[in-house]
Write a sequence for this structure.
């Protein structure tokens, strides 16, 4: 397989699939440009080495063809700034003769932004003819959109067949895959995963897959109470998925057979309302008061979680262990973050991923103190579930 470092971009037009699906305010100001800055190293590698870059992405969820509010043109001024003020060309579409003419006339070092891929339903439909038309704009294809790597769309996977010898991973996809593989395929032990969040149902496949590789599995957040109830506990009004009670017991059983230690909360901060001003107190996790609900882990649990994390050499964190959006119930999640930072400073490899844990890490200001943050929610979760991602497979095949 070709790598982006070694590939000769001289005189080539590189079609780069990026994930520039950034949030915009009502005046089309970009409110978070993380996804754009993440793709800069790849764009730079192309234009600094004699190639021209053709940027393609989706933006938002256009439903009925072209819509001004979802036009890629809104991103162009900021992209130009990020690239040091260079002039950026804008295509009227992502396919068609007018677009191809502009692409054909690109000179080394120039950058062209194609119009929103999802203005054509063929993009999400994975249409081969559409992918072929897109491919006609460039000489090589770089997939640097990890956020859409779990989709078999025209620009993220199907297009690969038109570049059998000229398909590459961009730096972002490459580092995401390497970091996830470091955790999933060759973890330094002990390996601890911390799974939080609200529901068992959305994490069950990941938990089952992780049982094959982790030494310790910390389960926190709203999921806790499905496990507590399954074990005969009293959970008051806490979150619970009754249809998963059997599965919760099966997981505990499977973990025991595989020698994986599952660590659940022993004490809980219960509240009489889902609000910052609620009354709260610490109780055993299996004895929540009637009419109250568990919204954070208690101090004894924090101490247990911290000890396990401090003794780990590989740590994967997905999901908060309490309702961290409210300061009153953020203590447990903050403690997990602090423990991960401490373990990382002593040499552990820590990977934080999934929307809410990334938000938590940002809220606590510790984003630069963990080893790697994966910002690609859906794609990362599917990778953790053990699925083959079409956008990755297309490059490797
Ligand atoms: P998820 O999207 O499944 O990862 O869940 C993240 C959400 O779970 C966050 O918004 C947290 O506030 C919420 N959460 C964490 N712990 C609890 C809990 N004990 N009760 C209710 N919600 C929780």
């Amino acid at each position: 397989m070709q790598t982006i470092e070694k590939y000769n971009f001289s005189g080539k037009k590189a079609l780069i699939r990026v994930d520039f699906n950034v949030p915009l305010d009502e005046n089309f100001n970009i409110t978070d440009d993380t996804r754009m800055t993440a793709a800069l190293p790849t764009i730079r590698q192309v234009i600094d080495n004699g190639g021209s870059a053709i940027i393609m992405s989706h933006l938002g969820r256009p439903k009925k063809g072209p819509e001004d509010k979802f036009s890629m043109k809104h991103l162009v001024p900021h992209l130009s700034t990020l690239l040091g003020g260079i002039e950026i060309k804008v295509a009227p579409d992502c396919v068609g003769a007018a677009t191809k003419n502009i692409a054909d006339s690109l000179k080394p070092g120039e950058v062209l932004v194609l119009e929103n891929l999802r203005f054509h339903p063929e993009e999400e439909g994975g249409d081969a003819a559409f992918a072929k038309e897109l491919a006609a704009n460039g000489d090589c294809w770089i997939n640097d959109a990890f956020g859409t790597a779990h989709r078999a769309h025209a620009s993220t996977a199907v297009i690969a067949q038109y570049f059998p010898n000229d398909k590459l991973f961009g730096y972002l996809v490459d580092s995401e895959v390497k970091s996830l593989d470091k955790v999933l395929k060759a973890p330094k032990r002990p390996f601890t995963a911390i799974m939080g969040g609200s529901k068992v149902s959305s994490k069950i496949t990941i938990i089952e897959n992780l049982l094959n590789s982790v030494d310790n599995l910390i389960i926190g957040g709203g999921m806790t109470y499905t496990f507590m109830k399954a074990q005969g506990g009293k959970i008051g009004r806490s979150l619970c998925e009754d249809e998963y009670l059997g599965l919760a017991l099966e997981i505990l059983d499977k973990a025991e057979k595989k020698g994986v230690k599952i660590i659940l909360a022993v004490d809980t901060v219960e509240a009489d309302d889902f609000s910052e001003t609620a009354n709260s107190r610490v109780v055993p996790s299996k004895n929540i008061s009637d009419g109250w609900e568990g919204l954070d882990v208690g101090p004894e649990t924090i101490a247990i979680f911290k000890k396990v994390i401090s003794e780990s050499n590989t740590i994967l964190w997905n999901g908060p262990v309490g309702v961290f959006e409210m300061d009153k119930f953020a203590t447990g999640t903050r403690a997990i973050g602090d423990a991960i930072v401490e373990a990382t400073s002593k040499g552990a490899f820590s990977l934080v991923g999934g929307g809410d844990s990334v938000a938590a890490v940002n809220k606590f200001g510790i984003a630069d103190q963990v080893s790697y943050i994966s910002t690609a929610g859906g794609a990362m979760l599917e990778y953790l579930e053990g699925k083959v991602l079409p956008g990755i497979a297309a490059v490797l095949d």
Summary: The longest strand covers residues 13-17.
